Structures are given as structure tokens and as C-alpha cells.
Amino acid sequence: MILQEAQHDFDVAILGNGLSGSLLATILGKQGVSTVLIDAEQHPRFAVGESTIPHTSLLISVLAEKYDLPELDDLVDANGLAKNVCTTCGIKRHFGYVFHRPGQTYDPKEGLQFGTSARDENHWFRQDIDAYLHNLAVHYGAVPRQKTKITGIEINESGVKLQTSQGEEIRARYVVDGTGYRSILADRFGLRENPTRLKHHSRTLFTHMVDVPPFDDAHNPLPISYHKGTLHHCFERGWFWVIPFNNNPLSTNPLISVGLTIDPRRYPKPEMAAEQEFNEFVQRYPSVAEQFKDGKAVRPWVSTGRLQYSSNKTTGYRYCLMSHASGFVDPLFSRGMFNTVEIIYALLDPLLEALKTDNFDEEPFRPVDAQQQLVLDYNDDLVNGSFISWNDFDLWNAWLRVFGLGTFLAEFHLMNGMSDYTRTGDPSYLKGPTKNPIFCDFEDPDYKAFFKASVETVEAVEAGGLEAKEGAKRIFDLADSYPFPVPIRKDSLVRARWMKEEDQLTERDLGFVRRGFRWALTTPLTRDVVSSSQTFFRWCAHRPDPHLMVPNGAEPEAKAPPQEASSIAH
């Protein structure tokens, strides 16, 4: 038996043993770094942030390969998850968005689905995922200190000293804060921006429920049930989320995560119970009310104040505030876990080098801070633009393409880098080529200019200087003005396990896929942006979704893409 409680000296102290802290501790432990994992609570425990996206899964797969941790790959594969981790998670085949107006049944033509990947993403039941990662970290050598509060912290040239509620002194060479809003380091060093620089305003109410059925399968014109993905009910300045854990045949979990996120300037927090407020919002939207009419909460409701916070600095001498300890915007677009994994990836190289050389100068860590600040500002603009656009469906349809062109193209570029890394072992392929990006160095080189112009457009609508319909047209015209090639490669699809090596996909086929997918991302005539052979043929012919056909059988007019957009991307 290895005695752990008597150990007080470590290379790295991690505050917070949730997903981010435990994932980092697992990797550090595998690298032989002595790590202590400290938390005021203990596992298992409730947590939200449950929906993965391909970018999250791809980066976890990179970490699994680079640091020889095949157990991490089980987290991103639905079958491996059920076989080797837990049977309490759901699957995610799309982002589903349904647009609502008060007092009206929703229009099925105002529902959209953006596919995640050719294999299932996941709805993580966080209490089980977090506990699995915590236990994996301990397996690889991390020393757990659960039910342990930090009462004092000192950082100087000799290292880090932590005082605990048990009267213990823990010493480390570096400290990482993965706690969240109540960051110990942010409080100790006065790092919070007050007021925050973030534009967006939202608050949230959430719980887990049973007896919430799939949404309106009888009238859904799209090819996949909304129940098979992360469902967003969108309305003026707010949205509901519905994240089922019971939509996977391998799942034994009957629960569904539900929440309501709203702008407190439009909907001030009332003096009533969260359950009552949630129900009153549900009743405003008949189609949402129908889905929730038999729903029952299985745990206490959580109701927050404003969610947004930021820090003026996230790294310093011998410390780092990681992801949600540094700042947060909103759960929309499921970007929280991606940002967490991205920062872990960015932190590892400079941290391992500092531990090796015993040089903890701040300079090598500045790119980590720059990346966290960059991503926070991008998420702020992305979510703020969404809340603005929910006043008009056409504007929302356009704004969602702004999200899609950033996310999907970056994922394809990352997949190519992963494939090249696996083939050559050269880590330089894991750094994207885009200089001065808006959120990620794998993004399309034209995306930053497009994004900034789109933000200016949607904010002009909010300010009253532009009509919403004209704003939507302007965004689609902007999208048409850039090539935005879709860089799909077969070897990359195989590496990402989106297809098998023996599957037939010729270069000619890839040309059709690239051109068709590009058109689908940049036209108002699609609601079904889920890749399949049927949709690819339709996209290549520039045909709208069948349910968008006008009553006399004619098709809405489709603009041909610019010549350069039709070229095959390599």
C-alpha cells in the first residue's frame, strides 16, 4: 500500500478535482510529475457542462496519443464509454435549434440541425465522468485531498505553500487553479475584472429531470430526432437546453439535463422559487410546454445570478488559472469543455519544461494567458450575437452560419493535423498555420475578418441602425465573398474514426463533398446541415431541404457560390 496522507511536497498542486483538474493530473501523473489534487468536496457529485463537440473529442484524442493514455480515448467513443467508463451517458448526433415565439406553436421550418460528426458525440453524465477521471489520476500517481479547503496560499521564489483547513501545509513548485468562479488564486491576487469586460449578460436555472419525452417527433421534418442531439429551444433573449442521457441504447440512465438561460436585463430575477420561474417560462411557449408537461425534477434546482466573469491575468509566476477559473460566458454552443481541453493542451508543454529546468519565468506561459483571453472574447461575441439574433429567425439562421464556418472548418483542419502527426510523429502538425486567429490557429485564414464584420452587422441590428432582414442578407453575402474551402481528407476522416480505411471515398467524391458542404454552410436554404449521402447529393445540386419547397412545387431561388468557392480544397 502506498501511503498518501503523509506526503506534503509535490511538483504541482491542482486546486479542484473536477474534469479539468483531474484530466490535467492524469497526464502529469503519467509523465512522472508528482501531483496533489485538492478539492473542498468529494466525488461523486453533480456537475453541468455535459455536451461534447467534435473539437473537444479530437483534442482529447490528441492528448491520448501524445501522452500514451488510451483510457482517454474511451471518453470520446460512445461504445468505449459504455464498455469501460460508465453506462450513464447519452449520445449527440447534432446541435438542434428550434425557434419559438410567445403564445405560438413552433413552425417546423424554423428548426435547424447542425451535425456533429460521422460518429456520435456524447452527453456526459458528469458525476460519473469526473469521478472516473479523478480515479484515473490517482491510478497514475496523483495524491487526492478531498474534503480539503485551502485557507491560505503563498507564492515566492522558493515555491508554493498552501495551508489547509486540516492545519496541513502542502508545498509545491507550481499551482494550477481549476476551481471555477470562486477561484482561490483570483481572489488571493485580485485577478477578477470588476466590472467584467464581457458584453453578454445571462443567468441560468437548471436541474436533472425524468419523464421529458423527445420533442415533437411527429412533426419534425428533419432526418434525425431532436432527441438524438443537444436540443436548444431559442426565443427572444434566451434559450432552454435539453440534454438526454437516455437516448443511447447502451445507457441505463433515465435522466435528462434541462436548463433555462436568459438575459437578466430583459428578464430580471424574480422573488420566486426557481422551479416556479422555469414553469412560467415554459408556459409562454406552447411547444415547449408540451414537451415538459410531465417532467419532474429529481434534484434541487440551481438558480444563478449573472454568469459572466473574466480576469485581467490568468497566468503568473508559478501559477495558472485554468479555463473556468479564469472566466466564463455562457453554456451555449457547448464550448466550455473544448476550451478546458484546449488550455490543458497549451499549458502542458511550458509546464513540463519549467519543471524540468526549474525555471518558472512567466514568459513561456504568456501564450496560455493570451489564448484564454482570446477564446473568452470570441465566445462573448459569439453568444452575444446569438442572443441579439433571436429577435428574428432569418437573422438567427444567418448567425448560426457564423458559428458553423468557424467551428466546422477548424475541426477539419485539426483532423488533418492529427492525421499528419500520427503518420510522422512530428508535433509541429498539432499547431495550426493561421496567424493571429480570432479563436483557434486551425481556423480558416479568412474567418477572423468574416467574424468581425458579422459581429459589426448583428450589433448594428441591436443598435437599431439596420433591419434584421438586411442584417441576415449582409451576413450571407459576406460568407459568399470568401472562398472558405472545406479541407476534408480521407486519411483524416479515418484517423478521427469518422470512417474506415476500407470505405470507398475517391478524390472525385471528396470534391463533391467539399463543394456541397461549403454551399450548405453558406446558404439560407438549408435547415438540415447533417452530413449523409442523401444530403450531399442535394447540396451539390444546390437544392433546398424538401420541406422548404414552396407550395406550388417551385424551389426558393438559390444563388450560385462564387467561382473560387467551387474549387476543391486540398
Write up this protein:
- With 570 residues, the chain is α/β, with parallel strands linked by helices.
- It has three domains: 9-87 and 124-195 and 311-375, 3-Layer(bba) Sandwich (FAD/NAD(P)-binding domain), CATH 3.50.50.60; 91-123 and 201-303, D-Amino Acid Oxidase, Chain A, domain 2 (2-Layer Sandwich); 391-566, no CATH class.
- It has 16 helices and 19 strands.
- Strands 4, 5, 11, 12, 13, 14, 15, 16 and 19 form a nine-stranded mixed β-sheet that branches. Strands 1, 2, 7, 8, 9, 10, 17 and 18 form an eight-stranded mixed β-sheet that branches. It has a two-stranded antiparallel sheet with strand order 3-6.
- A hairpin with a 2-residue loop joins strand 17 (315-316) and strand 18 (319-321).
- Helix 9 runs antiparallel to helix 10 and helix 11 packs parallel to helix 13.
- The longest helix has 32 residues, at 393-424.
- It is globular, with a radius of gyration of 24 Å.
- It starts with 8 loop residues before the first strand and ends in a 30-residue tail after the last helix.
